[in-house]
């Protein structure tokens, strides 16, 4: 007998001996049995023995004997085939954290009432919670069979959410694929079954299979949006999925909801220029919608377009009403406006925006921006003091403050001081991959290449999916023209985790250039620069153009990069080394 079930004593033992063992009483039945004024229906099954059995079950539950109550009431449920009583039995087991017993009761419920959708749902949910995906197949087939055809897609659509926390997604996909393939053969459920199978395949790291299923669904249902939403989720792992979205938007350029979703996916992929393009279209077509203006403002700021960012953020603020829920959104916009003003060099306007923000949850962000303003005025020490005065009792506060201080020093080109702050942070948080990565970047600035590589290798051990670490080490090797095959392997691994990330694509282009593959280098660097017109990418693209005999285009690209970031070191060094002038 499980520990959950203490051995029954007294009257309960007699009940157990005669097979009358189960869980606590359903509240509706309890109310019926205790309400003296309510007449017993003529067809009621609640006879005296059953009433006594339910009463014993309830008493055992209240006296701290859930196992006895479970057995008593499960026996009652089996004798009466009462769905509410089965539900009560399952809940008692769940409250006692006895998942296997809950499953026993749910299965008995399904066998007793085979047309009960709720019983099927309970069995499936418990099997998922107990990590038994193979056993889900039979009740899922049965549930689809008893569900009216118009509602079967709802059942299928719930599957990915149901399994979203499954510890072994590959087992889930393998177990459910036959059921979903059968459902995809039926016209009424074909599209949903294809997409659910695609989502499970994506979770099981079978991106090629997920892409094929998405393409099939998009081809078979050319007017449906659902395949395109799955295509958006596939973008990080399968860039080919983007062609499905591009084709739909070309056919229906006014499909603004899809364009918004596409823009957000591009922003998540760090493709700020492409994302901003989509949000510009949306804001022009729907100027009264506030949220796209905010996202556009943040993207323009990321692209170092402060004037365009300010215009978009002002448009966002003009469209906000005074509801309490909008207060934080308004302060977020003020924070971005302060950053845009600082980027323009208008420090007074930046401070004016910061002065409006009174949300204590944004204290670190506001303090950092004020520290940055002081540093720009030659008062770096005062800026650091502002950050150091923030409370750091909680680990999360201490970590965030140390990161902010190191970033302040990094912006001020104080590499050694930033390195010291990060070393201090890594003493307190020794297994923090992001802090180790930042320290590695400062080691690189100080020319400590062995230390940088050691730190990056440690990041890879702690967090194998930290693609920035692979990219940073690979790029560093390519920049020094060392161990180029290893550099390419590292960058290729980074691209496995983030296939469309422009800086990683640019790194691969740079290593191809170092290996003498100029045509492939140009293709990759053009692709990266189109998605992210960053000054450093411009420096590398310009160099490859220059040595390839395309000097005029090189000057154009360098000029665009210098306009965005006039102080960029890579641009200045590249032009000087190639004697390309300004």
What attributes does this structure have?
mainly alpha; globular; Serine Threonine Protein Phosphatase 5, Tetratricopeptide repeat; 34 helices; about 575 residues
Walkthrough of the structure:
- By secondary structure, the protein is an all-alpha fold.
- It has a domain of 130 residues: Serine Threonine Protein Phosphatase 5, Tetratricopeptide repeat (Alpha Horseshoe), CATH 1.25.40.
- α12 packs antiparallel against α13.
- The longest helix is centred in the middle third of the chain and has 18 residues.
- The radius of gyration is 32 Å and the shape is globular.
- The termini are far apart.
Give the gist of this structure.
With 582 residues, the chain is mainly α.
CATH class of the domain at 1-130: Mainly Alpha
- Average residue-wise pLDDT: 89
**CATH topology name of the domain at 1-130:** Serine Threonine Protein Phosphatase 5, Tetratricopeptide repeat
User: Distance N terminus to C terminus?
Assistant: 84 Å
Helix count from the secondary structure assignment: 34
Shape: globular
Q: Estimate what percentage of residues fall within beta strands.
A: under 5%
In terms of per-residue confidence, which ranges show pLDDT below 50 for 5 or more consecutive residues? 1-42
Helix content: over 70%
CATH architecture descriptor of the domain at 1-130: Alpha Horseshoe
Q: Supply Rg.
A: 32 Å
Q: Compute the number of strand runs.
A: 0
Structural class: mainly alpha
Largest sheet: none
